[in-house]
Amino acid sequence: MGRLVGMLVGAARWLGIVLFAALTLGLFWSVVIRYFAIFGGSLPWVEEFARFTFIWMTFLGAIVALDRAAHICIDLLVKLAPRWSQAFLAAAVDAIILAFLGVYTAKGVDLVRLTTDQFSPSLNLPMALIHAAIPVSGVVMILQVLSHVGERLRALAGAAAPLRAKE
Known about the structure:
By secondary structure, the protein is mainly alpha-helical.
């Protein structure tokens, strides 16, 4: 599962980079058009494009941040706890994160279902496509946490395994 998660995180990273480049070019083009009053001075779809691109970049960035452990984390309690309880506290944190991501993903799916027949005014894109960023990022982050939990369990099992004599 680690390889799959790595591929998904890599895809999120590259898609985020492409979206950032598209956002930058779109906004730059919009400024040039307004400044030189080309095409009547504005492109009405650029603002909507920028908003939708930023939404997807935000949720893709959450995937990358989770992979790099860059989300805000208050681990003072875990560090102050006795060594024997730290693994339990870490497992409790993982369970809380999974529960949150489960609700987050389920509500994101509900939002996508609610907006399947709505379209954006300028680009005429289905709003479900924009809102799909929530469940997509939720599923990937759930896989990331499960992979992390699996790695932690393998490490604990390896540490608890008795040493075998070489034969």
